[in-house]
Amino acid sequence: MSKKIFIKTFGCQMNEYDSNRIFDTVKEIGFAKTHNIDEANCYLLNTCHIRDKAKEKVYHEIGRVKKKFKSKQKPMVIVAGCVAQAENEEMLKREPYIDLVVGPQAYHKINNKIEEYLENQKRIEETEFDAISKFNFFENIKNSSQKISSFLTIQEGCDKFCHFCVVPYTRGPEYSRPFDKIMSEAKILANNGVKEIILLGQNVNAYRNENYRLSDLIIEIEKIPEILRIRYTTSHPRDMTDDLIETYSKSKKLMPLVHLPVQSGSNRVLELMNRKHIIEDYLKVYNKLKEINSSIKFSSDFIIGYPGENENDFYDTLNLIKRIKFINSYSFIFSPRPGTTASKLKLTDRKISLKRLETIQKELFSQQIKMNKSLENSIIDVLVENKTEEIGKFFGRSEYMTSVIFDANDDDVGKIVKVKINKSNQNTLFGEIIRNIKLKVA
Ligand code: SAM
Ligand code: SF4
Ligand code: F3S
Fold first, then answer.
1. How many domains would you assign to the chain?
2. In 154-281, at which residue ranges do the beta strands (DSSP E only) sit?
3. Do the domain assignments include residue 438?
4. Interior/surface letters 319-341, b for 16+ CB within 10 angstroms, e for the rest
5. Is the CB of residue 150 below 6 angstroms from any atom belonging to ligand 2?
6. Is there a single domain that holds both residue 102 and residue 10?
7. In this structure, are 150 and 108 located in the same domain?
8. Which CATH number covers residue 48?
């Protein structure tokens, strides 16, 4: 019987990257990917533990698979990702339908574990932290991503232990991959037809390998002719070093959108969160970047209703948002994570948190709408990524990561084209390609 794997991914970009790398791996033992769950004989759920009822969501998802296969041969069920790491053998105890639990730093063992299970049908839990062996293993597995915009993990794990965050427990200690290995992978992606590389890390700007920093990687990737755009995410304000800031004046391919999570505009709350920086540090970074290139724009992450957040703290956050004019941000109510310091703290009243979230989002969304509206009737650069389902319409992204829908041809995919924006809404720009721009000669 042919082996078919169905992979479902929750969570951040790193999980997306991991799911692709897991597929590159299981291909070696004969698995083909299917997008039709009904024909799968292996089901892999790559999970996220960052907030809300993450764990329950996983069991609910497995329940749905169970129902689907009620009258059919059960697929092998694998749970990977951050919930797998956090819950480990508990998952096998609670849900007999799960066959293999594998943590994010043990993916190099996945083929052996699948084969072991298929041979003796004994359920397995594998959640050892071994990032070095994992990345060494993946160096010999070709990255098959052919997407115009592809992720490339350069750093993983975190040593910062913000009091609200589960990542140091699910991804383990900070680890940076060797510079030359990242460059080899970037070249493979370029040969696959990739045009934009998004460098990933839970603290991507903390990247350090020998004397190499993130800025060195950007400058080196810039030299690959096929790569047209470079981005990186997610950064911590404390690691926005001057060399990285200066890269914005040296690089022509580094995009002018800086995603820099601040979480709160109040120094008091930042201290309660153990963020280890103050708002004045954040503003210094903001000012330095704006001085280098005034067209740089910012996006951020906010946690609303953190334990101890009072009305004044909340207004500090709102005022920061008004001052920086973030163009695209994520904002969520604080969600206590098991095992973290903040999980033991007294929660802010739910109704108050909801009200604050609503106020913040109103401001953030109106900034986003204004930014998009300001682009109407102008011509912008768009990297064409793919066709949409609507005939003749294509999807691409602006330099600021905004989605753009426009008329184009198959030949335009993978190219940066000029698009005149005719219409916009909160999340999308709509326009048409301008093919022959007549430049005025002085
Ligand atoms: N390393 C990045 C940083 O330091 O800003 C953040 C990485 S974390 C995977 C992504 C985002 O999830 C955070 O920026 C934070 O806003 C959000 N987050 C993490 N833990 C959370 C929690 N317990 N409740 C609500 N949001 C949370
Ligand atoms: Fe989590 Fe980011 Fe803080 Fe690390 S720096 S603990 S990943 S929020
Ligand atoms: Fe979620 Fe783990 Fe990413 S908790 S956000 S999948 S690092």
1. 3
2. 155-156, 175-176, 196-200, 208-209, 212-213, 229-233, 257-259
3. no
4. ebbeebebbbbebbbbbebeebe
5. no
6. yes
7. no
8. 3.40.50.12160
**Looking at ligand 3, which atom is closest to the CA of residue 171?**
7
441 in a structural domain: no
CATH number assigned to the domain comprising residue 388: 2.40.50.140
- Give the distance (Å) from ligand 2 centre to CA of residue 263: 11
Give the pLDDT band (50/70/90) at residue 441. Answer: low
Query: Binning pLDDT at 50, 70 and 90, where does residue 439 land?
Result: low
Phi, psi of 329 (to 5 degrees): -145, 160
Same domain, 338 and 419: no
pTM of the model: 0.97
Cβ–ligand 3 contact at 165 (below 6 Å): no
- Residue 301 alpha carbon, nearest atom of ligand 1: 16
**Nearest residue (CA) to ligand 1, atom 3:** 236
C-alpha of residue 419 to centroid of ligand 3, in Å = 35
The angle formed by the CA atoms of residues 300, 303 and 309, to the nearest 5 degrees, is 130
Confidence of residue 436 (pLDDT cuts 50, 70, 90): confident
**101 alpha carbon – ligand 1 mean position (Å):** 24
- Looking at all shown ligands, the one closest to residue 263's CA atom is 1
